[in-house]
């Protein structure tokens, strides 16, 4: 027995079995104890509860939702809410971050100072504090009667009201998809190797594709238009309440603003790092070829910087997607809040936590997969000298 | 023949200004736009925070609400609840002293003299013990104050310090396990680290605060505060482990091979060769992680702790100061800013210094 332990191979196997075994034993013991404790409270484990109706409401949903809907439908709503808030927040944060990041790399001292002040202030204050701050600001806005108004937008304590086309929901979704296609399709057509035209001579094809997508958008808006109403629906005061337009709930607006501002300060630093990594020699070479500063930016600095920042940006996006869980602080029913509410109401603790983990794992993995694809597509081919 | 060297005349002050801000029309527009924004914001902010602000409590909330600017009297009236939470009034000096202990401890650990494993462990161990004794009492004639009465800044700092104290050694262990040569050990550890990293911190805190009691036998449950600290430490260590591992990968393999050739044993190699060099490589990222984790302590408000953000909510939430929410949030933001900004500046300074020494 002792001689067996002296054998390196045996010892290694034993160590591994011990390590994995003890972790597995801990997890299993936890699950067994939890099931027993829950059973004492009259909660049967298993995923049958997914098909029971919830009995409570969500305050934000892109899909139709009533208290009679089953739990699985609510989980779906939660994931879609998280993804929707996340993508709106990501887009806004990217816009803010790009502007601030460019200001920070500008040759103008004042612009640099302004960008730096922004980053220093908003990066150093916790996100949740900013969420609470914006929520307090928005909920203390005037009531609909005294709403701040500008260009048809209304700011009230009940949310932000924006003009919205008078079309059916399905038509609006179709039109949105078509507009996205109008942006994505020409980009793809410009790079793909499936067309016989050489790259660089595809202007006509790209233009046709974009125009066709936009025409599709216009058609779907025209078809889905609600009868006897103007195309754009402006919010207006009727009695004590606001009618018309699209209401963005205070919770959603708060989180989108907070994520945009906080995330923007991080993305600004990533953008700055990306531009800093572009070799001075590359820029000088382009300038000495006689390119204008604008063309140096679009043809040399931007593409190189984009490649440098994309992997870091991907991590930041994943982080921001997870930051939507701040929703629970202000009562926005994101995925995590739905899980927490499920635990409160149904007591199906283990199952709900399992679904939470699986959900975030799926979100993270799919985001990572998308960014890996993009990264591979734009990576420089072969060995190229930098500097 | 005498050569006369004429240097180009040094640009005058006005010429210098013109070159820096008005070199081209576009630059001029940009400069003017930035200047306008800055002057406008600075004026608005100064006017609100200083010129039209009320600083004294003498007029009471009513006079304060009528003022056009900030109402700093809410801070003057409620600073105790923001800093100390529900800590007993007569004992609040202990809470203040405990916060000073943490600040001293942090400053000490920024001095290179203390950058050996033993010394830094001593500083943090002794500091945390002192903090705990001061806050909890029950010995040396200090009255006993239970954890449920802790709050405000002291609770925030306590959670941060204990998170690091537990999380850091755990991170090193996880990093060592992950780079183990035994495939099942490294794979399982990798699974744990990546699993924790893929979850949001709030969900981990929630699991440890609310769900874990179901999965533990009665005698192991402990106080909710310590469970949440454990969760937060686990989260911290999963991120920190990857930073430490990155630092280890930066150490040339020759170093460890040479140590092996000298006949050093595993722990000697780790403790004397690998870790000192790895920690040096990982230092900037480590400080960054400390900064992030300090900001993230504020999330414990979600699972119902009375840390500084929650005590701020309470400071304006009741009765007559209801209107003064901006001032309270600005004050708390300023406290966070002082801590986080100085720590991140220190990190940047260190990074610069190290990049010089590597040249």
TrEMBL record, chain A:
Gene Ontology CC entries for this record: ATP-binding cassette (ABC) transporter complex
Presence of the UniProt keyword Transmembrane in the record: yes
CDD domains found in the cross-reference section: TM_PBP2 (cd06261)
Pfam families per the UniProt record, alphabetical: BPD_transp_1 (PF00528)
Domain spans labelled ABC transmembrane type-1: 79-371
Membrane-spanning segments: 12-34, 71-100, 121-141, 161-185, 205-224, 252-271, 317-340, 352-371
Localization annotation: Cell inner membrane; Cell membrane
Single GO term (MF): transmembrane transporter activity
Gene Ontology biological process terms from the UniProt entry: amino acid transport
Keywords per UniProt: Amino-acid transport, Cell membrane, Membrane, Transmembrane, Transmembrane helix, Transport
Membrane topology label: Multi-pass membrane protein
Main location: membrane
PANTHER family reported in the protein's UniProt record: AMINO-ACID ABC TRANSPORTER PERMEASE PROTEIN YHDX-RELATED, MEMBRANE COMPONENT OF AMINO ACID ABC TRANSPORTER
Protein family per UniProt: Belongs to the binding-protein-dependent transport system permease family. HisMQ subfamily.
Protein name as catalogued: ABC transporter permease
Organism: Mesorhizobium kowhaii
Species lineage: Bacteria, Pseudomonadati, Pseudomonadota, Alphaproteobacteria, Hyphomicrobiales
UniProtKB/TrEMBL annotation, chain B:
Subcellular location: Cell inner membrane; Cell membrane
Protein topology in the membrane: Multi-pass membrane protein
Entry superkingdom: Bacteria
Family named by the database record: Belongs to the binding-protein-dependent transport system permease family. HisMQ subfamily.
A GO cellular-component term linked to this record: ATP-binding cassette (ABC) transporter complex
Keyword Transmembrane: yes
Keywords: Cell membrane, Membrane, Transmembrane, Transmembrane helix, Transport
Source organism: Mesorhizobium kowhaii
UniProt cross-references to SUPFAM superfamilies, sorted A to Z: MetI-like
Location of the ABC transmembrane type-1 domain: 153-344
Molecular functions (GO terms): transmembrane transporter activity
UniProt xrefs under InterPro entries: AA_ABC_transptr_permease_3TM, ArtM/GltK/GlnP/TcyL/YhdX-like, MetI-like, MetI-like_sf
This protein's name: ABC transporter permease
Pfam family, one: BPD_transp_1
Biological process according to GO: amino acid transport
Keyword field contains Iron: no
Transmembrane regions: 21-43, 93-115, 122-143, 149-177, 198-219, 328-349
């Amino acid at each position: 027995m002792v001689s067996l332990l002296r054998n390196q191979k045996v010892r290694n196997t034993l160590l591994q079995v011990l390590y994995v075994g003890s972790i597995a034993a801990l997890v299993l013991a936890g699950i067994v104890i939890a099931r027993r404790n829950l059973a004492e409270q009259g909660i049967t484990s298993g995923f049958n509860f997914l098909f029971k109706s919830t009995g409570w409401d969500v305050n934000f949903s892109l899909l139709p939702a009533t208290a009679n809907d089953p739990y699985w439908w609510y989980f779906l709503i939660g994931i879609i809410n998280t993804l929707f808030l996340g993508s709106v927040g990501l887009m806004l944060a990217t816009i803010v971050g790009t502007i601030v990041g460019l200001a920070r790399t500008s040759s103008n001292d004042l612009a640099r100072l302004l960008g730096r002040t922004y980053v220093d202030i908003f990066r150093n204050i916790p996100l949740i504090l900013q969420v609470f701050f914006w929520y307090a600001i928005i909920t203390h806005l005037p009531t609909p009667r005294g709403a701040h108004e500008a260009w048809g937008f209304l700011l009230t304590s009940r949310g932000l009201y924006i003009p919205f086309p008078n079309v059916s929901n399905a038509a609006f979704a179709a039109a949105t998809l078509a507009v996205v296609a109008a942006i994505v399709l020409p980009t793809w057509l410009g790079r793909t190797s499936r067309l016989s035209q050489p790259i660089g001579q595809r202007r006509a094809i790209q233009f046709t594709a974009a125009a066709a997508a936009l025409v599709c958008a216009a058609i779907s808006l025209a078809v889905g238009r609600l009868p006897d109403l103007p195309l754009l629906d402006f919010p207006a005061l009727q009695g004590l309440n606001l009618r018309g337009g699209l209401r963005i709930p205070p919770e959603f607006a708060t989180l989108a603003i907070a994520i945009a501002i906080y995330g923007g300060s991080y993305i600004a630093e990533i953008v700055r790092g990306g531009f800093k990594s572009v070799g001075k020699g590359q820029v000088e070479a382009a300038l000495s070829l006689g390119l204008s500063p604008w063309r140096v930016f679009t043809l040399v600095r931007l593409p190189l910087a984009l490649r440098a920042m994309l992997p870091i940006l991907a991590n930041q996006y994943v982080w921001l997607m997870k930051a939507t869980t701040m929703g629970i602080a202000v009562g926005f029913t994101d995925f995590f809040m739905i899980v927490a509410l499920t635990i409160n109401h149904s007591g199906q603790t283990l199952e709900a936590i399992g679904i939470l983990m699986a959900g975030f794992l799926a979100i993270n993995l799919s985001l990572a997969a998308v960014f890996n694809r993009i990264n591979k597509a734009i990576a420089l081919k072969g060995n190229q000298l930098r500097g | 023949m005498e050569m006369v060297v004429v240097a180009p005349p040094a640009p005058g002050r006005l010429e210098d200004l013109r070159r820096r801000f008005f070199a081209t029309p576009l630059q001029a527009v940009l400069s003017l736009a930035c200047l306008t924004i800055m002057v406008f914001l600075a004026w608005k902010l100064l006017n609100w925070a200083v010129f039209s602000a009320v600083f004294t409590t003498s007029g009471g909330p009513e006079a304060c609400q009528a003022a056009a600017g900030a109402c700093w009297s809410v801070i003057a009236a409620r600073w105790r609840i923001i800093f100390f939470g529900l800590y007993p009034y007569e004992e609040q000096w202990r809470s203040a002293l405990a916060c000073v202990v943490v600040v001293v401890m942090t400053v000490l650990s920024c001095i290179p003299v203390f950058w050996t494993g033993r010394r830094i462990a001593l500083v943090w161990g002794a500091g945390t013990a002192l903090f705990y004794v001061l806050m909890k009492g029950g010995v040396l004639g200090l009255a006993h104050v239970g954890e449920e009465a802790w709050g405000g800044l002291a609770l925030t700092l306590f959670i941060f310090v204990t998170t690091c104290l537990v999380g850091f050694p755990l991170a090193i262990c996880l990093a060592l396990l992950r780079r183990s040569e035994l495939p099942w050990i490294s794979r399982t550890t990798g699974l744990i680290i990546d699993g924790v990293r893929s979850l949001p911190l709030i969900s981990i805190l929630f699991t440890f605060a609310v769900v874990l009691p179901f999965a533990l036998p009665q005698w192991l449950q402990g106080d909710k505060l310590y469970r949440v600290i454990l969760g937060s430490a686990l989260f911290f260590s999963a991120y920190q482990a990857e930073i430490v591992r990155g630092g280890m990968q930066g150490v040339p393999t020759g170093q460890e091979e040479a140590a092996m050739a000298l006949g050093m044993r595993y722990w000697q190699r780790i403790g004397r060769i690998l870790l000192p060099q790895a920690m040096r490589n990982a230092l900037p990222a480590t400080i960054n992680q400390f900064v992030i984790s300090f900001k993230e302590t504020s999330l414990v408000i979600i699972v119902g702790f009375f840390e500084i953000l929650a005590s701020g909510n309470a400071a304006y939430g009741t009765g007559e100061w209801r209107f003064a929410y901006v001032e309270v949030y600005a004050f708390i933001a300023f406290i966070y800013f002082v801590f986080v900004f100085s720590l991140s500046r220190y990190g940047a300074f260190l990074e610069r210094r190290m990049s010089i020494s590597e040249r």
